Each structure stands twice: as C-alpha cells, then as structure tokens.
C-alpha cells in the first residue's frame, strides 16, 4: 500500500507542476508547440536531454547487459558523452544558425527536398519500430517485475505486460500530444532530479548488501571477486570488443546525440547558442556518472544472484529495486522511473509529430498550411503513432537476446546512413544531393542484407555487429566522396543565417569538452588497471 501511495503521489506532483508551469504557454503556433517558443535555458535542455535518454531501456537494458557482460557496456554512456561534445561544438551551431525545426529540414537546406523527405520517413520508421516500442516494453517489464502485477491481479505475465504497456502509452501520449515540448522538458527536469537521487542510491545500497552492511567491504568484494566484470576492455569476441569503439560505436553514438530528432529537438528550442552549448555540455558531463548507476548495479546483481540466478538478465535492475528499497521508497523510485519512461516515450512522440507536420504534411501535402493546422495534424498523427507503438511493444518479449543489443542493432539500419550524409554535408560542401541519396540507399540495403538478413556475416566472414555498422559507414562515406569527385557542386554549400537566436558561443565550451575527454580516458585506465591488478596481470 505504501508503495502504491508514494508512487501515485510523486507521479501526480510532477504532472501538476508541469501543468502549472506550461498552462499559459503558446500551444497554437508551430514554434511554441514544437520548440517551446525557442525559450529553453541550459538547465531545461540538460535535464530534458538526460531524461529523454535515461529511461528503462537504459536502466533495464544496460544493467541487464552489465549482468551478462560486465563493465565493457559502459561505453554506451561514455561514448554518448563524447558524441555530445561533437553536438555542442559542430552540429548545434549549424542547426541554430539555420533556424531549423527538424534535422530533415537542415538536410533540405544542405541537399534538396527529396533528401528531406527520405530522411523524414526513415526517422519516423525508426521511432515506430525502434524507440517507442522498446521504451514501452522495458517500462512495462520493470513495472510488472517491481509491483508484482501478475500475482496482484491474478493474470499471466503476458497479460500484465499488455495492461501496463497500454497504461504507459496512454499517459505518455497525453503529455506529449497535448502539452508540447515545454511540458516534456519541464517534467523531464523534475523527474531527472528524483532519478539522480534514486539512481545513485541503488549502487550504494547494493554495495552495502554485498558487504553485509559495510560499503567498504562491498567495494572490496566487488574488486576482488569476478574482477573481469570490472574490466571495460572486453575480449575480442565479447559483447563490445575494444576495437568497436573506433568503428561502429562512432557512427551509432554520433547519430543518437547529433541527428536523432527525439534527442536534438530540445536543443533546437534553446534561447541562444550559449544556452544550448551549456545544456549539452553539462549533460555530457553528467554522462560520466552513467557507469555508476546504469552499469554497476548490473554487476552488483551478478555478485548477489550469480550468473544463473535470474531467468532473464534484463530483470536484474527490477530485482535489485525490490530487494534493496523499503516499500515507500520503492513507490517513489518507481514514480521516477515511470517519469523516465514517459520522458522517452513522449519525447519520441513529440518528435514524430514534428517530423510529420513540418517535413511530410507541410512539405509535400499542404505547403500553405497555417501553424494551427500543423499543430492539429501533428496531434492526430501522434495518436496514430502511439497506438502503433503500443501494439508492437509486447511482441519484443519474443526476442531471446538482450533488450539493449536488439534495440541498437535495429537502429543501425537507419542511423548510419543518416549520420554519414550529415557529416559529409558539413565537411565536404561540394558533395551533391545525388551522393546523399545513393549513400542512403546503399547503407540501408547493405546493413539490411548483411546485418539483419545474414546475421552480421559478410561473404562468409562473421563480424561483430558494431564492426559491420562501421564498415557500412565507411562504404556510405566512400559513395558520397566518389559522387562528389565526379559531379561536384559548382559552388560550395554555404548555410544562410536565420537570425532566430543569438549565435554567440559559450567561451568555456572548448575547455569544458577537453576536461570531459580526460575523464573518459581516466575511467578506462583506472578500471582496467584495477581488473589487471586483481587478476595478477
């Protein structure tokens, strides 16, 4: 009972505060609804970036990956922080200079309207098949595990997953479709504070349980038993071989943090470049703590329950929550997790409505559409996408591999070609639209066939899927450079300034980014050294 009361109280509190802070906002204009009127300060940008990313597909998926593979999965967090440096210094200044609402809109300025349409469709497909269903499924899996829904209601596990999935989807749709980006950003920030507190408590309490009440003894057990779990440099045939950090990981992380509409849209709402850079860089710094609350709990669960102690590795985090927290605290933390699920889901929905309204409907169906009409169309489309995601989510349970790996492998089908044409478009201003179109077609066909159809096997040679993603990216780059050398643009592309916001950069941006890179190197060296020392290496 205490669990349920505290859950409902905190969830209702966040909803009420979000409504109070946004009830008078402009929800009729496209800028007001989709970009929060370009009014977001660095704190809201950072909080929204972190919580949009930090949902149960991260908490459940990454901790499940750590339970199976150890600390090597931490580069999903640290690599994300490094990619955000590129976002702050390279991508964001160009997006804000162009005054764009969506990434495809920027690509239209760089290439042409056909490229914009192709990328819009691919991003919508990615949201529907890759992001939204995984957010709903992982959230439902967590809630079912922690609240014991099948036992409480006398229903099957499958039935419980369907019920909770529908509930999360409906609430998330209300936030996103009727609240707009500002409501998303405010609720993200509030939930982010709770998640930071609760998220850091789990590894601390887990270490204390591991050490029979002593935090230091728990750390000693962690660093002397199963020490391979702490090594961030995995074996060549491991889940994330170290070499993949320099191949496919680069493309996957750059896509997610620099061109994924569900993520970058809140940066488009920045009131200035300085505020946008501050928000992105602060979020990058906070990513450095990711291994301690997104990976370490999975390793602690491995020590507590053993390699075969769980039916499903993705249940490791939910099991820890149930075992470590008192009933009232479980309710609070579940409310925060629920908020994180809603954050990722409603951010994805908000991005889908933006993409459809601005890039598909206005660009192809009704070029003269008024802003109020675009908002109305976006809301209707958001309802359709929400229903589709709810219908797909429960079927993810049929996949026998890790949740996080499945999500990333499916994403690579669309991600690599998109980030490739964006990067080449920035650094090679004479590459024409034809190069982008051929690279998109080549990338999707190559990875779809050799990755998904052939099981990451290229002409009889089996590759780690990240290496295959890296190879795909290299091929896309080669295609674009060849086309650019054969049919270069007569004049190099030059982006025209929209003057929507102040483009003065943050003076400390470069120094802050160098500091973050130093932290990444230190964490790798430190953890690898601990592992080697205790192995006698």
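^ Assign residues to that structure.
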């Amino acid at each position: 009972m205490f669990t349920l009361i505290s859950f409902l109280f905190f969830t209702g509190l966040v909803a009420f505060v979000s409504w109070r802070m946004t009830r008078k906002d402009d929800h009729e204009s496209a800028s007001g609804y989709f970009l929060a009127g370009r009014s977001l300060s660095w704190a809201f940008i950072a909080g929204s970036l972190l919580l949009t990313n930090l949902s149960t597909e991260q908490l459940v998926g990454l901790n499940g990956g750590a339970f199976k593979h150890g600390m090597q999965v931490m580069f999903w967090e640290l690599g994300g922080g490094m990619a955000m440096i590129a976002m702050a210094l390279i991508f964001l200044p160009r997006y804000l200079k162009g005054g764009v609402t969506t990434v495809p809109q920027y690509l239209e300025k760089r290439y042409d309207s056909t490229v914009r349409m192709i990328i819009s469709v691919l991003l919508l497909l990615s949201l529907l098949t890759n992001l939204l269903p995984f957010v709903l499924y992982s959230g439902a899996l967590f809630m079912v595990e922690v609240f014991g829904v099948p036992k409480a209601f006398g229903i099957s596990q499958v039935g419980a997953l369907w019920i909770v999935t529908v509930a999360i989807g409906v609430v998330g749709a209300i936030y996103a479709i009727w609240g707009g980006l500002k409501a998303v950003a405010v609720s993200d920030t509030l939930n982010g504070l709770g998640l930071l507190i609760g998220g850091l408590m789990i590894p601390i309490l887990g270490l204390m349980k591991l050490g029979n009440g002593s935090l230091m003894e728990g750390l000693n057990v962690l660093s002397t038993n199963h020490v391979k779990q702490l090594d961030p440099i995995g074996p060549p045939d491991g889940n994330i071989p170290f070499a993949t950090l320099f191949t496919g990981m680069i493309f996957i992380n750059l896509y997610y943090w620099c061109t994924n509409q569900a993520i970058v849209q809140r940066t488009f709402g920045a009131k200035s470049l300085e505020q946008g850079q501050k928000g992105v860089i602060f979020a990058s710094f906070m990513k450095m703590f990711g291994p301690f609350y997104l990976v370490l709990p999975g390793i602690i669960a491995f020590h507590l329950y053993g390699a075969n102690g769980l039916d499903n590795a993705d249940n490791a985090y939910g099991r820890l929550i149930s075992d470590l927290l008192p009933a009232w605290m479980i309710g609070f933390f579940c409310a925060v997790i629920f908020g994180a699920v809603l954050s990722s889901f409603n951010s994805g929905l908000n991005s889908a409505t933006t993409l459809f309204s601005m890039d598909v409907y206005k660009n192809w169906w009704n070029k003269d559409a008024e802003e109020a009409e675009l908002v109305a169309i976006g809301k209707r489309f958001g309802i359709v996408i929400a229903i589709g995601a709810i219908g797909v989510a429960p079927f993810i349970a049929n996949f026998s591999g890790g949740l996080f790996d499945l999500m990333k492998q499916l994403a690579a089908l669309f991600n690599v070609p998109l980030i490739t044409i964006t990067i080449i478009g920035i650094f090679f201003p004479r590459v024409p639209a034809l190069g982008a179109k051929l690279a998109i077609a080549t990338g999707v066909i190559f990875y779809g066939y050799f990755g998904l159809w052939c099981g990451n096997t290229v002409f009889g040679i089996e590759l780690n899927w990240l290496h295959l993603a890296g190879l795909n990216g290299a091929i896309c780059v080669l295609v674009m450079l060849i086309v650019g050398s054969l049919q270069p643009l007569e004049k190099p592309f030059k982006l025209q300034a929209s003057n929507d916001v102040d483009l003065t950069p943050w003076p400390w941006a470069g120094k802050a980014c160098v500091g973050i890179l130093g932290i990444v190197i230190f964490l790798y060296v430190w953890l690898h050294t601990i592992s080697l020392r205790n192995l006698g290496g």
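The longest strand covers residues 457-458.
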